[in-house]
């Protein structure tokens, strides 16, 4: 298949992410986003990052996006009733985005030719390898990220809980 | 699987950068052009994923697993952020019956 | 004896302090006694000094008291200089001062500010003595300004009258203008000669060549100072206004002593002035112009004191004319005689005013010679003296000046002689209007007129005698004298031998005497025979008379040319320049900052989309920088 | 490490205490926990322990940690009855603040970008929540959502930056990055430069430097005052320490590259912060803008990197922290009594509550940078360093801005002393008194004898 | 013996703290402390050997890592200003005895606090210490003026504060620059003196210092804060501002500007003199038509200070010595003037000249005192003002004769506006407002007697004062000239 798989998936990623931001109905956006994330999963597989592919599939597509969808439905926002920003704002936004991408890529000097990506260690992205890494050098941040999640948990409960007034 | 990764070997690193930068920018454009807080938030998720992809690519490029570990942390953050962010949006919606960010303009000047 | 000279000014100062502190508690007699007594003591000491100096071979004594100011190379001691010039001045100041103090006891008797008046007079004497005794220009300057202060205080003695207060201020300010000139001259002297001590400056100056421009500038500036103090054009207008003060003040300060300080100063600095012929010329011209101007104005004045005031201006002009032509002795001689007769005239006028209950307008007088015989006689003596009829004192001094002027410049002499005729005319006009004819006031007022008390007439008599015989100290050789004064002063003022022969001198004397007599006769016909009385203010006069009566509108011109523009500039500076421009820039900075604040805060629109847009703009620029810098 | 553990354990203990409705025990418990953490800080002095290559408790970290802990303790002292009227879940607030503090400690001690990231996010996520804890208050909602959206957005850039740096160096470790820079000084990967810039953008957002400051005024104004206090002092200090730790340490070899844009940012920050503050009628909002301007002065330390930069930042942030706490404490007092937080509410405070007025005056003088207060020493050191590089125009510009600062800081002093207000006495609770007096004392000590902390790091 | 300087500086500070808690007895407490300070000053003056050396030097380490020391000492120049401060502060406190300030404890405490700041400024030999004192003196006076001032006090004082502090920030810039140039990296004044900077640098430093000093003095065109502030401030505040505080600027020029950047002075001194001279004429002219007596005196003060500044920049002994004595004289005179105006306004509630008149009739004692003060102000020989102005004019004269011609106008103009004010306030007829004027009594008399006595004593026998500073001034000028020649 050659490298064309990558370019196909890349094209799909870009296409669906564009659909995410241009879909009028937020629910459609979420659905496009899920598709986009799926293309990302494919990218991870292409990069042999199997652990990430799985996590991405489960956490992002399975949990996070469902949460989005859930909230949208809960708040009854499934109609495309979003008051659109004026055309000018859109144009300005898009122009700004184009400038950003140009300057970003330009400043990265990414237009120059570069080495092709070579997978030197096929085990790199496997669970075992990453597990060693995670519980080795990165144990501290791994443990501390629990605080982050705990914070989020406390916060979510705190904010959405109805107070007895 | 092996085949796929073998095929990949021809893709220059730059193209990953291009891809990430473009998707990142699409996320930025989404933030800039949309008014629905949830959609904006989704655009931010798009930006984060672009970063994730790039990290993975770099990780592969430099044959270093720590990049992928970092992606894992970003995902943890994303989860936490989503939990908090959506609850904030829900809370705001309760008060304003809207998720339009333009409603939020009482604090200014 | 000479070493006790510090007592001479100190005692009046003590009198000032004692009277000043006790002005409300002491009785008037005590105040008068102290006030006059201290001057008498000073006078006695002065006589002692005078005699001691006369018998001493050394004619110049410097008495050092203490170091006053010193800064770097500038050292100014407070020290006194006793030499023939200052010794004579001491006598005049304390002598005439004493008489006027005596006179004041009577004149001011009913005034509530009696104590204050005497303390001021004593203070004046103190400063005047300081002026003449100072051994350097700075000590002289203390006295110089100090007498100005006393003049200010005494002109504004009846300060509740705001025009008197204004006159006082005017006097002070005009003097100040001159003082600035004086001060700058002192600076110049210091930088040129390295000292301000007379004893150091004059010998150094003696080595210089005439025509030195620095010295010319010095002398010019000194002359500016003298102009202010001695009421010369253009700084003379304060003197007539100064008549607002009590009459003894006019006699003492504004006739006999203070106003002659300028002449004293120039005479003292004769060494310098001799080096600057150009300036001497200027002095002569200004002196002459002042003499003419004063005389012309005096011809039409109706206020008895104003006549005398302009007469003083005119006489001072004479003295400057004399100085300008190098007749230092003559001028100084005239200072002395003028002190006698002008003090006398003022005191007589005061006596008249006293008798008339503070009426000063001659149009309301007339025929007073019977009611005020002593005053009349003494005033007549004074008038003759000032008119320059021999053998009264004025004749000799004026003639000496005229002789020198003639020698110097014939045209000037002609004008000066003419001025002398005018002097005689207006003085006799005053006498005739006051004492001759019939009384022109109300009958009721007439009954109250009576001769002044003896404390007032005594000084009149003494001064009348001095006016009559005072000329004795300077009888010229042409008339068989040997001019004692110039001999006495020769250590200070080198005697210029007159080149003129006696015949010319006789001729000059004859011209002036005859002219004066003619002028008197004209006045007699006009004011006695024809009973002419000056018209009321409102009525028509000839143009010349109108101009003269209004003092050539000089006050008005000054008002328009100087005071009003300054006030206008002041207003413009304050309201426009200071408030709008200088402060406006400062406030404008504040204002523009707050306006910027109003503008910049609009960035904070409250709109998240906008915020993010701005952030993105920032990010783009930073990335652009990165792109460009690599 | 002990420090973080203590703080987190305290947080959990507080959470459980809340569960069992032990509301009275919350504050003492928290304070004890903080004191223990502070004790650990003191004992850890000069030990310079490295934990797993992720955190390094060097003196820099300990000094800033102590400052954060002390500041948090002061803020806790101000909580009396503050949350109780909003909610019954006070314990959660305490917990969140403590979590945020633990994040802050990570931010000042990290040696790996992943630690920076985790710490930063713990702190940010807690702050998003804390900003919105007045659930029925529209302003609080708005603040929370704005903060969240923009914060998440800027996190994206920070992460992109980290990614690029990782791409260039192949490591997240500060040491490795630094040695890469030193080793490849002439041929640093082109990925690195935008990475630095994007990280700078992310950090500038966190500390609130223009043009990434827009969230600051709105969030500070909308959040509950106490939370604003926390955000403007502890959060800001931690973010700045993190900023300086990586830029002054790791990225120092590229100083010539990232300094010029930072200088532009400094100028913009100073200008916008000061000039906008000038017009504010609301005291709290004015403080928000003033906090922006202080970031501008603080960034001076990054413009010139000297051996004393860290110390200077410590002094400045300490002075700023305690002055701000004082200002907010008085603001809370005033707002509780008068209901307003604009300048007029302070009218006549000099009479009604002399202690509070005096403390606020000292705080304002310190923020304005008047000698004999800590704020002056801080500003002075900043100017000194920049002058050292002869960037006189920058200092002159900063001075002009400081001048504007005098004006708005004095406005509240003017209101307190020179304007008549309602004749209501304001009671000061004991804890407030303690905080005010201690803050004033610290402010003055920092001003008169700054040597106490000047050579600490 | 060296510690006496510490006592001198810190006594007012301690006094301020004590006074702040004494309630209504504050004035007495403050007075006692002020007199104690005066006594210490007198002791110092007696112990002082009038040579050029620094005496009573205190040099304690303060913030060592930054090269900051508590380094202070007294030489002749300092002694004059210290004398000025510690003589005027008791006078000002005494002058405030009969004024009814609310919260007197704070008022007097602030005065004493300011005194401490001023003493630091006048004795500091460390630039940083100098700057601290400079600002520390500003805070109390700001509060004094803004709390007890007139109607427009808030706006006016804000301007005053921001203006003056703005100037001093630029001075801070200059100080930092010098510090960085100093190889020893400290703020020691001697080290600063020994710096050799090139003329361009000196020019910049000159302006950074000069603006601060010029605003404080104030020199045209930096003066616009001053009339408003003087008019709005309470009497005590005005006296402090005009009597002592503006001398900070003058002192600063002498101590910190001339010897450090002589080449800058050489390049820009003429500009400074021109500005000063413009200020003299300009302020005098404006004073002509002022309606408010306080404002008139304020402008007159600008004129007088302009002369002092011109005299200093003339760079010669006469000008400098004149500035020294004139600092003292101007302080005394202007305090006297403002005190008299305060007496009038406290009784009649107005300082508008046209509403007054004839007060001399009902209050002869006040009239005499006022006259003496006015005469001192217009520099009549025999009063203190003359000594100063004479020497200053002489100094300016040696710089340039045209400068003295314009500067000398102050002699004339001063007489014009001062006597005009005196005439319209004190002389003339009493009107219905002034008829009930009560003559001075109690402490008012005491204050005025002291002031008048000082005016005359200093005028008649200025030598002790001139002697105190002469050696220091000479040394300073030599230093300047030496540096100038070495630059060439």
UniProtKB/TrEMBL annotation, chain A:
GO terms for cellular component: plasma membrane. Keywords: Cell membrane, Membrane, NAD, Quinone, Transmembrane, Transmembrane helix. It comes from the Bacteria. It catalyses: a quinone + NADH + 5 H(+)(in) = a quinol + NAD(+) + 4 H(+)(out). GO terms for molecular function: NADH dehydrogenase (ubiquinone) activity; quinone binding. It is found in: Cell membrane. InterPro entries: NADH_UbQ/plastoQ_OxRdtase_su6, Nuo/plastoQ_OxRdtase_6_NuoJ. Pfam families: Oxidored_q3 (PF00499). The chain crosses the membrane at residues 6-23, 30-47, 53-75, 87-108, 138-159. Its EC number is 7.1.1.-. It is a multi-pass membrane protein. Its main location: membrane. Belongs to the complex I subunit 6 family. NDH-1 shuttles electrons from NADH, via FMN and iron-sulfur (Fe-S) centers, to quinones in the respiratory chain. Couples the redox reaction to proton translocation (for every two electrons transferred, four hydrogen ions are translocated across the cytoplasmic membrane), and thus conserves the redox energy in a proton gradient. This is NADH-quinone oxidoreductase subunit J. It comes from Pedobacter westerhofensis.
From TrEMBL, chain B:
The chain crosses the membrane at residues 15-32, 39-58, 70-93. InterPro entries: NADH_UbQ_OxRdtase_chain4L/K, NUOK/Mnh_C1-like. One of its GO terms (cellular component) is plasma membrane. It is an enzyme of class 7 (translocase). Its EC number is 7.1.1.-. It catalyses: a quinone + NADH + 5 H(+)(in) = a quinol + NAD(+) + 4 H(+)(out). It is found in: Cell membrane; Membrane. It comes from the Bacteria. GO terms for molecular function: NADH dehydrogenase (quinone) (non-electrogenic) activity; quinone binding. Pfam families: Oxidored_q2 (PF00420). GO terms for biological process: ATP synthesis coupled electron transport. It is a multi-pass membrane protein. Keywords: Cell membrane, Membrane, NAD, Quinone, Translocase, Transmembrane, Transmembrane helix, Transport. NDH-1 is composed of 14 different subunits. Subunits NuoA, H, J, K, L, M, N constitute the membrane sector of the complex. Belongs to the complex I subunit 4L family. NDH-1 shuttles electrons from NADH, via FMN and iron-sulfur (Fe-S) centers, to quinones in the respiratory chain. The immediate electron acceptor for the enzyme in this species is believed to be ubiquinone. Couples the redox reaction to proton translocation (for every two electrons transferred, four hydrogen ions are translocated across the cytoplasmic membrane), and thus conserves the redox energy in a proton gradient. HAMAP family: NDH1_NuoK (MF_01456). This is NADH-quinone oxidoreductase subunit K. It comes from Pedobacter hartonius. The gene is nuoK.
UniProtKB/TrEMBL annotation, chain C:
Residues 136-423 form the NADH:quinone oxidoreductase/Mrp antiporter transmembrane domain. It comes from the Bacteria. Gene3D superfamilies: 1.20.5.2700. Keywords: Membrane, NAD, NADP, Plastoquinone, Quinone, Translocase, Transmembrane, Transmembrane helix. The keyword Heme does not apply. It is found in: Endomembrane system; Membrane. One of its GO terms (cellular component) is membrane. The chain crosses the membrane at residues 30-53, 88-108, 120-140, 146-168, 180-202, 208-228, 249-267, 279-300, 307-326, 332-353, 374-392, 412-436, 457-475, 506-525, 608-628. It catalyses: a plastoquinone + NADPH + (n+1) H(+)(in) = a plastoquinol + NADP(+) + n H(+)(out); a plastoquinone + NADH + (n+1) H(+)(in) = a plastoquinol + NAD(+) + n H(+)(out). GO terms for molecular function: NADH dehydrogenase (ubiquinone) activity; NADH dehydrogenase activity; quinone binding. Residues 448-558 form the NADH:ubiquinone/plastoquinone oxidoreductase chloroplast chain 5 C-terminal domain. Residues 68-118 form the NADH-Ubiquinone oxidoreductase (complex I) chain 5 N-terminal domain. InterPro entries: NADH_UbQ_OxRdtase_chlpt_su5_C, NADHpl_OxRdtase_5_subgr, ND/Mrp_TM, NU5C-like, Proton_antipo_N. It comes from Pedobacter westerhofensis. The keyword Transmembrane applies. One of its GO terms (biological process) is ATP synthesis coupled electron transport. This is NADH dehydrogenase subunit L. Belongs to the complex I subunit 5 family. It is a multi-pass membrane protein.
TrEMBL record, chain D:
It is an enzyme of class 7 (translocase). Keywords: Cell membrane, Membrane, NAD, Quinone, Translocase, Transmembrane, Transmembrane helix, Transport. Residues 112-402 form the NADH:quinone oxidoreductase/Mrp antiporter transmembrane domain. GO terms for biological process: ATP synthesis coupled electron transport. NDH-1 shuttles electrons from NADH, via FMN and iron-sulfur (Fe-S) centers, to quinones in the respiratory chain. The immediate electron acceptor for the enzyme in this species is believed to be a menaquinone. Couples the redox reaction to proton translocation (for every two electrons transferred, four hydrogen ions are translocated across the cytoplasmic membrane), and thus conserves the redox energy in a proton gradient. Belongs to the complex I subunit 2 family. This is NADH-quinone oxidoreductase subunit N. It comes from Pedobacter westerhofensis. The gene is nuoN.
């Amino acid at each position: 298949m050659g490298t064309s798989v990558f370019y196909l998936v890349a094209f799909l990623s870009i296409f669906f992410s564009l659909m995410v931001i241009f879909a009028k109905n937020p629910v459609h956006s979420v659905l496009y986003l899920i598709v986009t994330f799926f293309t990302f999963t494919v990218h991870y597989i292409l990069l042999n990052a199997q652990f990430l592919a799985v996590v991405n599939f489960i956490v992002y597509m399975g949990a996070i996006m469902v949460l989005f969808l859930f909230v949208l439905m809960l708040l009854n926002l499934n109609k495309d009733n979003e008051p659109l920003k004026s055309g000018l704002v859109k144009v300005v936004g898009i122009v700004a985005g184009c400038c950003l991408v140009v300057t970003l890529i330009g400043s990265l000097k990414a237009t120059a030719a570069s080495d092709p990506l070579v997978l030197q260690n096929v085990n790199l992205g496997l669970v075992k390898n990453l597990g060693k890494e995670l519980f080795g050098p990165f144990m501290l941040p791994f443990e501390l990220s629990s605080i982050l999640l705990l914070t989020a948990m406390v916060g979510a409960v705190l904010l959405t809980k109805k107070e007895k007034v | 699987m092996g085949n796929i990764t073998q095929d990949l070997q021809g893709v220059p690193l730059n193209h990953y950068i291009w891809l990430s930068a473009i998707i990142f920018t699409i996320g930025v454009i989404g933030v800039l052009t949309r008014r629905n807080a949830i959609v904006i938030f989704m655009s931010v998720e798009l930006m984060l994923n672009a970063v994730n992809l790039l990290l993975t690519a770099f990780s592969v490029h430099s044959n270093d697993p720590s990049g992928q570990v970092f992606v894992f942390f970003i995902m943890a953050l994303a989860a936490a952020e989503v939990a908090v962010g959506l609850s904030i949006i829900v809370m705001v919606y309760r008060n304003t019956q809207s998720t339009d960010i333009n409603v939020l303009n009482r604090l200014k000047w | 004896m000479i070493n006790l000279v510090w007592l001479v000014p100190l005692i009046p100062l003590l009198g000032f302090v004692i009277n000043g502190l006790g002005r409300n508690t002491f009785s008037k007699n005590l105040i008068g006694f102290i006030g006059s007594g201290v001057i008498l003591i000073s006078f006695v000491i002065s006589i002692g000094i005078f005699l001691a100096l006369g018998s001493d071979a050394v004619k110049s004594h410097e008495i050092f008291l203490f170091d006053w100011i010193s800064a770097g190379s500038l050292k100014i001691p407070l020290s006194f200089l006793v030499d023939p010039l200052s010794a004579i001045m001491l006598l005049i100041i304390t002598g005439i001062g004493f008489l006027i103090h005596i006179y004041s006891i009577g004149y001011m008797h009913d005034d509530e500010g009696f104590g204050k008046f005497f303390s001021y007079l004593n203070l004046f004497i103190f400063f005047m003595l300081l002026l003449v005794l100072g051994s350097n220009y700075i000590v002289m300057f203390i006295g110089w300004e100090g007498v100005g202060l006393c003049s200010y205080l005494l002109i504004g003695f009846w300060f509740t009258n705001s025009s008197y207060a204004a006159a006082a201020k005017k006097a002070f300010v005009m003097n100040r203008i001159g003082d600035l000139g004086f001060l700058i001259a002192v600076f110049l002297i210091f930088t040129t000669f390295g000292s301000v001590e007379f004893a150091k400056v004059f010998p150094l100056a003696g080595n210089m060549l005439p025509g030195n421009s620095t010295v010319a500038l010095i002398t010019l500036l000194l002359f500016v100072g003298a102009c202010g103090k001695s009421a010369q054009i253009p700084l003379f207008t304060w003197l007539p206004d100064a008549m607002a003060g009590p009459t003894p003040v006019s006699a003492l300060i504004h006739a006999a002593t203070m106003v002659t300080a300028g002449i004293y100063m120039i005479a003292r600095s004769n060494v310098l002035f001799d080096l600057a012929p150009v300036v001497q010329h200027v002095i002569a011209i200004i002196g002459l112009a002042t003499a003419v101007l004063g005389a012309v104005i005096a011809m039409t004045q109706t206020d008895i004191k104003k006549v005398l005031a302009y007469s003083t201006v005119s006489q001072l002009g004479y003295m400057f004319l004399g100085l300008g032509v190098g007749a230092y002795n003559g001028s100084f001689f005239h200072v002395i005689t003028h002190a006698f007769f002008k003090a006398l005239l003022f005191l007589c006028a005061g006596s008249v005013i006293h008798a008339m209950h503070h009426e000063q307008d001659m149009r309301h007088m007339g025929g007073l010679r019977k009611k005020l015989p002593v005053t009349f006689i003494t005033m007549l003596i004074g008038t003759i003296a000032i008119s320059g009829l021999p053998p009264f004192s004025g004749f000799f001094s004026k003639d000496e000046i005229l002789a020198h002027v003639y020698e110097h410049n014939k045209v000037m002499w002609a004008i000066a002689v003419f001025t002398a005729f005018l002097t005689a005319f207006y003085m006799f006009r005053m006498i005739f209007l006051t004492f001759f004819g019939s009384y022109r006031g109300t009958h009721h007022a007439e009954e109250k007129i009576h001769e002044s008390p003896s404390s007032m007439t005594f000084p009149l008599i003494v001064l009348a005698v001095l006016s009559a015989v005072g000329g004795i100290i300077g009888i010229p050789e042409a008339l068989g004298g040997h001019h004692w004064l110039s001999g006495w002063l020769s250590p200070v003022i080198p005697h210029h031998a007159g080149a003129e022969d006696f015949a010319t001198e006789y001729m000059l004397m004859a011209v002036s005497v005859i002219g004066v007599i003619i002028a008197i006769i004209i006045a007699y016909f006009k004011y006695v025979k024809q009973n002419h009385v000056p018209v009321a203010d409102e009525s028509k006069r000839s143009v010349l008379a109108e101009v003269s009566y209004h003092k050539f509108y000089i006050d008005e011109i000054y008002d328009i040319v100087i005071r009003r523009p300054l006030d206008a500039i002041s207003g413009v500076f304050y309201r426009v320049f200071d408030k709008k421009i200088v402060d406006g820039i400062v406030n404008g900075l504040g204002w523009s900052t707050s306006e910027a604040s109003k503008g910049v805060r609009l960035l904070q629109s409250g709109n998240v989309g906008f915020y993010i847009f701005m952030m993105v703009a920032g990010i783009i620029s930073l990335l652009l920088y990165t792109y460009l810098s690599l | 490490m002990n420090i973080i553990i203590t703080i987190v354990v305290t947080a959990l203990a507080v959470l459980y205490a809340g569960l069992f409705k032990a509301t009275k025990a919350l504050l003492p418990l928290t304070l004890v926990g903080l004191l223990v953490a502070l004790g650990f800080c003191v004992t850890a002095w000069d030990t310079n322990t490295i934990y797993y290559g992720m955190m390094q408790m060097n003196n820099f970290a300990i000094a800033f940690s102590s400052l954060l802990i002390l500041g948090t303790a002061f803020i806790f002292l101000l909580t009396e009855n503050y949350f109780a009227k909003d909610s019954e879940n006070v314990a959660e607030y305490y917990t969140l603040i403590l979590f945020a503090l633990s994040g802050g400690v990570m931010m000042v001690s990290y040696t790996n970008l992943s630690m920076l990231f985790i710490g930063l996010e713990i702190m940010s996520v807690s702050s998003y929540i804390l900003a919105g804890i007045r659930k029925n208050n529209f302003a609080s909602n708005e603040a929370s959502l704005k903060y969240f959206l923009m914060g998440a957005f800027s996190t994206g850039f920070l992460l992109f930056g980290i990614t690029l740096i990782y791409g260039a160096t192949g490591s997240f470790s500060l040491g490795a990055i630094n040695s890469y820079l030193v080793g490849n000084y002439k041929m640093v990967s082109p990925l690195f430069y935008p990475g630095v810039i994007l990280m700078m953008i992310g950090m500038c957002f966190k500390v609130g430097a223009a043009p990434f400051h827009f969230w600051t005024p709105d969030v500070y104004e909308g959040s509950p005052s106490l939370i604003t206090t926390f955000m403007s002092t502890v959060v800001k200090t931690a973010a700045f320490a993190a900023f300086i730790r990586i830029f002054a340490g790791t990225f120092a070899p590229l100083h010539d590259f990232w300094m010029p844009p930072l200088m532009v940012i400094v100028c913009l920050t100073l200008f916008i912060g000061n000039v906008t503050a000038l017009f504010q009628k609301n005291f709290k909002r004015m403080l928000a803008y003033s906090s922006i301007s202080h970031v501008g002065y603080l960034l001076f330390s990054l413009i010139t990197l000297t051996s004393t930069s860290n110390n200077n930042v410590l002094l400045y942030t300490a002075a700023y922290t305690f002055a701000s706490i004082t200002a907010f404490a008085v603001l809370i007092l005033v707002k509780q009594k008068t209901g307003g937080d604009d300048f007029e509410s302070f009218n006549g405070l000099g009479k009604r509550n002399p202690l509070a007025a005096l403390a606020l005056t000292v705080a304002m003088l310190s923020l304005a940078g008047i000698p004999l207060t800590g704020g002056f020493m801080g500003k002075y050191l900043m100017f000194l360093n920049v002058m050292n590089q002869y960037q006189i125009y920058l200092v002159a510009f900063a001075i002009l801005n400081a001048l504007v600062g005098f004006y708005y800081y004095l406005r509240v002093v003017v209101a307190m002393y020179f304007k008549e207000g309602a004749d209501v006495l304001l009671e000061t609770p004991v804890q407030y008194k303690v905080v005010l007096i201690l803050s004033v004392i610290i402010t003055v000590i920092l001003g008169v004898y700054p040597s106490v902390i000047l050579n600490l790091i | 013996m060296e510690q006496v300087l510490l006592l001198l500086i810190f006594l007012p500070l301690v006094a301020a703290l004590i006074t702040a808690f004494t309630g209504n007895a504050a004035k007495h407490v403050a007075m006692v402390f002020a007199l104690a300070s005066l006594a210490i000053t007198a002791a110092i003056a007696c112990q002082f050997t009038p040579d050029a050396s620094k005496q009573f030097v205190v040099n304690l380490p303060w913030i060592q890592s930054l090269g900051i020391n508590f380094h202070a000492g007294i030489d002749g120049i300092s002694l004059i200003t210290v004398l000025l401060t510690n003589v005027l502060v008791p006078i000002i406190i005494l002058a405030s005895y009969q004024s009814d300030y609310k919260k007197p404890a704070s008022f007097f405490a602030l005065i004493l606090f300011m005194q401490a700041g001023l003493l630091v400024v006048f004795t500091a030999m460390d630039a940083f210490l100098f700057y601290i004192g400079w600002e520390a003196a500003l805070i109390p006076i700001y509060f004094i003026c803004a709390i007890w001032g007139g109607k427009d006090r808030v706006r006016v004082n804000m301007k005053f504060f921001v203006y003056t502090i703005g100037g001093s920030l630029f001075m801070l810039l200059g100080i930092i620059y010098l510090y960085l140039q100093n190889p020893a990296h400290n703020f020691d004044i001697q080290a600063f003196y020994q710096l050799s900077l090139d003329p361009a640098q000196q020019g910049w430093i000159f302006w950074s210092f000069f603006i601060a000093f010029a605003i404080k003095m104030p020199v045209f065109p930096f003066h616009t804060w001053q009339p408003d502030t003087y008019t709005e401030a309470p009497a005590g505040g005005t006296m402090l501002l005009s009597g002592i505080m503006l001398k900070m600027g003058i002192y600063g020029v002498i101590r910190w500007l001339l010897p450090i950047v002589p080449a800058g002075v050489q390049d820009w001194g003429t500009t400074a003199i021109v500005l000063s001279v413009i200020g003299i004429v300009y302020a005098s002219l404006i004073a002509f038509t002022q309606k408010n007596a306080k404002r008139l005196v304020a402008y007159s003060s600008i004129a007088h200070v302009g002369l002092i500044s011109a005299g200093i920049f003339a760079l010669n002994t006469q000008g400098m010595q004149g500035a020294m004595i004139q600092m003292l004289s101007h302080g005394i005179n202007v305090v006297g003037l403002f005190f008299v105006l305060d007496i009038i306004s406290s009784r009649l509630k107005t300082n508008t000249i046209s509403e007054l008149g004839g007060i001399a009739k009902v209050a002869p004692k006040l009239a005499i005192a006022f006259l003496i003060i006015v005469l001192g102000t217009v520099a009549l020989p025999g009063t203190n003002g003359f000594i100063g102005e004479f020497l200053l004019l002489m100094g300016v004269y040696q710089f340039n004769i045209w400068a003295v011609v314009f500067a000398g106008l102050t002699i004339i103009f001063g007489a014009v506006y001062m006597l005009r004010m005196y005439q319209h306030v004190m002389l003339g007829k009493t009107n219905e407002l002034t008829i009930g004027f009560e003559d001075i009594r109690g402490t008012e008399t005491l204050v005025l007697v002291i002031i008048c006595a000082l005016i005359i004593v200093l005028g008649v026998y200025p030598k002790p004062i001139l002697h105190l500073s002469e050696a220091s001034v000479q040394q300073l000028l030599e230093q300047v000239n030496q540096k100038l020649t070495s630059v060439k």
